[in-house]
Every structure is written in C-alpha cells, then in structure tokens.
Design brief:
Elements: H1 7-18, H2 33-45, H3 48-54, E1 68-70, E2 73-75, E3 80-81, H4 90-108, E4 114-118, E5 126-128, E6 134-136, E7 142-146, H5 151-155, H6 185-193, H7 195-199, H8 207-218, H9 225-239
Antiparallel strand pairs: 1-2, 3-5, 4-7, 5-6
Organism: Pantherophis guttatus
GO cellular component, one term: extracellular region
Domain FAM69 protein-kinase: 40-220
C-alpha cells in the first residue's frame, strides 16, 4: 500500500485512522507513541483494515463495511466467495462479470484520482453479499498510486528501502518502479483468473466465440494498455444486453425496472 506513497495518501491515512470527530491532524499531534506504533505495525503486517477505514464502502468504494480489527483478525459481514458462483446460470454469471468489470474500472478511474492495483489475486479476493452485490473481500494485496500528484514523484522515492517488508527477516528489497505498473494490470488478472470461469460454456455459438476472443485479448500481458482496455470495453458491450432485471438481484432491484439503461 505504501510502495508508491504521496503526501495526500499519507494525510488521508492519518486522518481516517484516528477515528475522531475533528478528523484529527496530519501532524499526528493527537497520536500517542503507542498509537503511532500501532499504525506502523498494522501497515507492516496487514493493510486490509486500513484500506477499509480510509476508503469506506459508505462512500462508494467496493469494500465491506469496517467493523473492527485486531492484528490479523478482521470482523466483517457474512458473505460468499466468488468461486461458489462459477457454476451458476448465465444470468447470474453475466451480472457478476459486469460487476467485476465495473469495480476494476472504478479502481482505475475515480473522483479522488487514486489508482488501485492488485499485486496478486486468488479465490478469496472477491466476495458476494447476500443481496448479490460483488465487492473486494481481501484488500491486503492492493497497492495505491496517487494519480493527482503524479508518478514522477513516486519514482523519486525508489531510493528509499521499504523497511516494513523486512520486519521479520533481514533483507534488502529491490522494489520495481511505480511507473512499471501497467494501467491494465488489474484487467489482465481478472481476465485470466475469474472471467473465463464465470463465462465459460455459458452461451451458444457464435456469442461464446466472441466472448472467448475478447477474454483472450484482455488476458494477454504482452499487448498494450489500450488494446486490453478496448477488449474489455467490447466484452462489456457484449454482456450488457444479456443482463436481466430480476428480483433475485436485490442490490439493484426494483431500481432496474425504472431505468432506461436496462
């Protein structure tokens, strides 16, 4: 999370972590030494609860509500992992695929100009609430780049070592430059790991062939960012007409009945 830090991001962490009515001070005057050590410790071993605090779901971020944490123990609402829906009907998997693409787009383009990128994804990365809404279940593998302050500033920080990565062992980490992180990195990961499992053999030809073709392009890490983004936009255009308005999708029903988009 702090591989590519900016002053704006650090200020946000301090203000939101404090959880005080006046939003705290970026100078950490209201922090005791114990508070400072606790924050540094949490940032070094488990950034997941910090992400939930500073980018709350109540403000539209695709994360569960932060209820509390202690070390590596997280308290959260009851959910189901995304992998349980791989064998569902096409209308369910299409809805989840579109939600997944929407979340990834929001991570790339949001009003606060933060670019969120995954360093790793697995079966537990995404979850589904009981109302059918998809969200990021495990935010511990998320990095943040401040697009507003620019990547050039981040690249100048590379001479400093990440001491938090070496708390448990003696090491000399060589971290890649922030500018080496592709804009399409998240799209490549989900097109490789999740979307094929959601959309495999769900449709008749030639529709299935069009979906498979778009997926193969957006999962190709050797292509340019624009080629991958264009392929995912094509995939959205293919799937959007297949999304139905039904009471099973509680998170958007009955709103979808009165929407001109569906």
């Amino acid at each position: 999370m702090l591989r590519c830090p900016s002053q704006r991001l650090l200020d946000r962490i301090v203000r939101r972590y404090a959880e005080v009515p006046d939003a705290g001070s970026v100078y950490m005057d209201h922090f005791t030494d114990r508070d400072k050590l606790r924050l540094l410790y949490m940032l070094s071993i488990n950034t997941h609860p910090i992400i939930l605090q500073i980018f709350p779901g109540a403000e539209g971020w695709p994360f569960p509500k932060y209820l509390g944490s202690c070390g590596r123990l997280i308290v959260t609402a009851s959910t189901r992992p995304l992998k349980e829906f791989y064998g569902s009907s096409s209308d369910v998997t299409v809805d989840l695929a579109l939600q997944l693409l929407t979340i990834i787009d929001f991570m790339m383009n949001n009003g606060l100009n933060y670019f969120f990128y995954f360093t790793h994804v697995d079966a537990d990365t995404f979850g589904v609430f009981s109302n059918g809404q998809l969200f990021i279940q495990d935010a511990s593998m998320l990095g943040v780049i401040d697009k507003q302050e620019g990547r050039d500033l981040m690249n100048r920080q590379q001479k400093y070592k990440d001491i938090f990565s070496c708390l448990a062992v003696d090491c000399e980490p060589e971290l890649p430059s922030c500018s080496s992180i592709k804009e399409s990195q998240n799209l490549i990961m989900i097109c490789e790991k999740f979307l094929p499992k959601l959309l495999k053999q769900k449709f008749q030809l030639p529709l299935q062939e069009k979906i498979n073709s778009a997926l193969s392009i957006c999962a190709d890490s050797f292509l340019s960012d624009q080629e991958i983004i264009t392929a995912t936009q094509l995939l959205v255009n293919i799937l959007k007409p297949l999304q139905i308005c039904d009471s099973r999708f509680v998170y958007r029903y009955p709103d979808c009945k009165y929407s001109t988009k569906l």
